[in-house]
Structures are given as structure tokens and as C-alpha cells.
Write a structure and sequence with these properties.
Strand content: 5-15%
CATH topology: TIM Barrel
CATH class: Alpha Beta
Oligomer: single chain
Number of domains: 1
Largest sheet: 8 strands, parallel, barrel
Enzyme class: hydrolase
Strand order of the largest sheet: 1-2-3-4-5-7-10-11
Helix content: 25-40%
Number of helices: 14
Shape: globular
Radius of gyration: 21 Å
CATH superfamily: Glycosidases
Protein name: Beta-glucosidase
Order of helices and strands: EHHHEHHEHHEHHEEHHEEEHEHEEEH
Pfam families: Glyco_hydro_1
EC number: 3.2.1.21
Structural class: alpha/beta
GO cellular component, one term: cytosol
């Protein structure tokens, strides 16, 4: 971490924190909530590293007032949270569950009373289990059910939410949930998972139309991006890099911005008019960034057209991910140069790191590695702005230590430490750093 002062950011820059419903809410059986694919997955033996579930998580459903107070103390101007589809529509169809919407109504009002903009994500991977039983995102009908759900939520909250995000990381949900089976719903389809990409994007476009019909805007999507680092200089290595880049970075961006699917992905189940629906204008592109990906040519007869290789020579997070702040600047300038005027303003909707944070003898939690991570990545964003990229916000992942999907409670990303036995929240030193050095400067 440099000792130089953090450079100033443009006036009106949105400083925030992010979470997601299944990772923090708990309240699995509260007020008529139905099961999601993550409930099913987490309760299946052997799926989660520590055998835990999100049944309680951080108990945010019952403690959201305490968590809003933490955000107010932090001084952030925005909070990105997700709405649990099974809490709003337990069966994935039909009328809304009023008690489920009441929770988000209270949360939104409490945020506004604290001077914090509510930024709501409609789908952060917790598909209602009855929709999965009917085929999930492999079934085109799920895209239409998603639009109906978006309409129900907008009808209740659309007058107060300041930014809507339709989908969170559709690439990750496709690849880990349906390609390799590491995440819910646990399907192992490899490239046969591509219909999931198209149906998620179609659902996004239909949801954009539903939100606009309710007068709810601005609207965004949050994509996960990973710049390619070639580990080899042959033509085969370059072809492998192009293949991975198309899959991870362009598959969920080219069609959004009117280019259709990248070469090699034309087999998606596209019907007449689908690409126009998907390319409906958005107001913000959400960018989630954690690290680049090392790529080289695969061995002969490998199942994939690339081989992913660990990047050496960088500090590592507790997830064993390389810490490469320059990759974020590279990504932002690549988006700017590649998509030009079609690219809307960008907000960094997730950026953060997991470390094994533990309280000291006095109960304090020192996390200098996270401070260094945030310092480097914020400087990368500022450099990209200087390069001409229109970046208008940055959300730290995450406000709280949470239930980290297949890793259970073993990975801590929060600015606030959570004792998962007692639910005691303890702001870490990174919380104070973000407050004092960035947000409240």
C-alpha cells in the first residue's frame, strides 16, 4: 500500500457496500419464504465445505436495523443488496407474498432515512426451487417468470430504489452452477450450459422492459469480468486466450450492447426478436472484479479450448486469488476501448477480498491486507478515470462477513467481522480506513 494520499474522485461519485440475500439474511422459514436452489444445495451432504447452510447466515432479516446503522456510521452513500425471489414469490409464480415485500419495504425506508441510496439486485442466484424443478434457467419460461417477478417488486419499491440491477454475475451462475456443478443447482453440463446464458440475458431484457413500464429507473446489470493473462506466446495460446475472453467477458457483454453473441456462441437458442430485447439500453454497467485469469493452450483432447493456470508472483487472498489491482484498470480501459459510445457509465458493483480475520485479545480486528487491497484497487479506478473511462461508483464486497456459497463460513470478505455463533458485529480496521480515507474525506 502506498503512503501517498488517496487521489480525489469526481463529485457525486457513489461510495457503497454490497451484500446478497442468501449470504446474509437468514430467516429461511420466516413470513412465508419458499425454498431456493441454494437451500436445496446447501442441505445436500458434501456440497458445502464446512457443512453449513444459509438458514441463519448473518440473521440480517432480524437485524437489518443494526446493519443499516453500521452503514450510516461508515458514511456510504449507497447500499447494494439483493431481493430474495423466494421471499417475494415462494413458488416462483403468481401473486407476491406481502410479508416478504414488507421486509424490503422496511429496509428501503430505513436506508433512505439514513441518507443511503437503495441499490436493489433482483437475482443473486437464489432461484425458487419450484422453477428449478421445471427446468430452471435451462427453460426459456424462467426468463418470463423473472420479468413478472421484477414487475411485482417494482410495483412495491420502484418509487424509492435508486438503481435496479437485474442479474448478478450471470457468467458465474452459468459456469459454476450449471457448467461445473460447484454452485447451486449443481449441474455438470460444461458447454451444454449455454442455454442458461441466453435465458438469463433474455430475462434481463424482459425485466428491463418491466421496470421501465413501471417508471423505475435507472437500470443496470452486474457482470463478473476477468482479464486474460496469456501464459505462453504461441498461436495456440492466443487462440485459447481469445476463447476464454469470449466466454467470460464478452458472452454477457456483446449482446447487451447490441453486438449479438461473439463468434463461437451462435448456437445459443435465440428466437426472432430476442437480441433486440437483450440489447434494450441500460443506464449503468455494473462491473464485479476480483482478479485476472491465467490462460494457456490446453493439452490435446482436453474438454475445454483453454487451460486455466494460476498466476504467480502476486500476493494471494485467503481464497488463494492473486491480488492484481492493475487488472481492474486494464479491464476498465478495455471496456472503454472495445465498446466505445455503446458503453454506459460504469459502477464497480463488487470489489473485495477474503482473509482469515480474527479478533485480537482486546476484541479488535486488524486487517491491513484488506486495506492494502482496497487502496490499490481504488487507485486503479482513479487511474482508469484519468484514462477517460466513465466510472461513477465503487461498492466494496462486502459490508459483513457472510456465508460464502460453497465455502460456507470459511471465507471472510467483510469490513465488519461477524461472530456467526453470537451474531456480534465488530467493525474491522478496514471499516475505519474506508470511512476516513475514502468516504468521508
Amino acid at each position: 500500500m502506498t503512503t501517498a494520499p488517496m487521489p480525489a474522485f469526481p463529485a457525486g461519485f457513489r461510495w457503497g457496500v454490497s451484500t446478497s440475500a442468501y449470504q446474509i439474511e437468514g430467516g429461511a422459514d420466516a413470513d412465508g419464504r419458499g425454498p431456493s436452489i441454494w437451500d436445496t444445495f446447501a442441505h445436500t451432504p458434501g456440497r458445502i465445505v464446512d457443512g453449513s447452510t444459509g438458514d441463519v447466515a448473518c440473521d440480517h432479516y432480524h437485524r437489518h436495523g443494526e446493519d443499516v446503522a453500521l452503514m450510516a456510521g461508515l458514511g456510504v452513500s449507497a447500499y447494494r443488496f439483493s431481493i430474495a425471489w423466494p421471499r417475494v414469490q415462494p413458488g416462483g409464480t403468481g401473486a407476491a407474498n406481502p410479508a416478504g415485500l414488507d421486509f424490503y419495504d422496511r429496509l428501503v425506508d430505513d436506508l433512505l432515512a439514513a441518507g443511503i441510496d437503495p441499490v436493489a439486485t433482483l437475482f443473486h442466484w437464489d432461484l425458487p426451487q419450484p422453477l428449478e424443478d421445471a427446468g430452471g434457467w435451462l427453460n426459456r419460461d424462467t426468463a418470463h417468470r423473472f420479468a413478472e417477478y421484477a414487475d411485482l417488486v417494482a410495483a412495491r419499491l420502484g418509487d424509492r430504489v435508486k438503481l435496479w440491477i437485474t442479474l448478478n454475475e450471470p457468467f458465474i451462475h452459468m459456469s459454476l452452477g450449471h457448467g461445473t456443478g460447484v454452485h447451486a443447482p449443481g449441474r455438470f453440463l460444461l458447454f451444454d450450459a449455454l442455454p442458461v446464458a441466453h435465458h438469463q440475458l433474455l430475462g434481463h431484457g424482459l425485466a428491463v422492459a418491466a421496470l421501465r413500464a413501471r417508471g423505475s429507473s435507472p437500470v443496470a446489470i452486474a457482470n463478473n469480468y476477468s482479464p486474460v493473462r496469456l501464459l505462453g506466446g504461441t498461436d495456440a495460446d492466443r487462440a485459447a486466450g481469445a476463447a476464454y475472453d469470449a466466454l467470460h467477458n464478452r458472452l454477457f457483454t456483446d449482446p447487451l450492447l447490441g453486438r449479438g453473441y461473439p463468434p463461437g456462441f451462435e448456437a445459443a437458442p435465440v428466437r426472432d426478436g430476442d437480441l433486440d430485447i437483450i440489447a434494450a439500453p441500460i443506464d449503468v454497467l455494473g462491473v464485479n472484479y476480483y482478479n485476472p485469469t491465467g490462460i494457456r493452450a490446453p493439452e490435446e483432447d482436453a474438454p475445454l479450448p483453454f487451460e486455466m493456470v494460476p498466476l504467480e508472483g502476486y500476493p494471494r487472498t485467503g481464497f488463494d486469488w492473486p491480488v492484481v489491482p492493475g487488472g481492474l484498470r486494464d479491464l476498465l480501459t478495455w471496456l472503454h476501448d472495445t465498446y466505445g459510445e455503446a458503453l454506459p457509465p460504469i459502477q464497480i458493483t463488487e470489489s473485495g477480498c477474503a482473509y482469515d480475520d480474527v479478533p485480537d485479545a482486546d476484541g479488535r480486528v486488524h486487517d491491513p491486507e484488506r486495506i492494502a487491497y482496497l487502496d490499490g484497487h481504488l487507485r486503479a479506478v482513479r487511474a482508469a478515470i484519468d484514462d477517460g473511462v466513465d466510472v461513477t461508483g465503487y461498492f466494496v464486497w462486502s459490508l459483513l462477513d457472510n456465508w460464502e456459497w460453497a465455502e460456507g463460513f470459511t471465507k471472510r470478505f467483510g469490513l465488519v467481522h461477524v461472530d456467526f455463533d453470537t451474531q456480534v458485529r465488530t467493525p474491522k480496521s478496514s471499516y475505519a480506513w474506508y470511512r476516513d480515507q475514502v468516504v468521508r474525506r
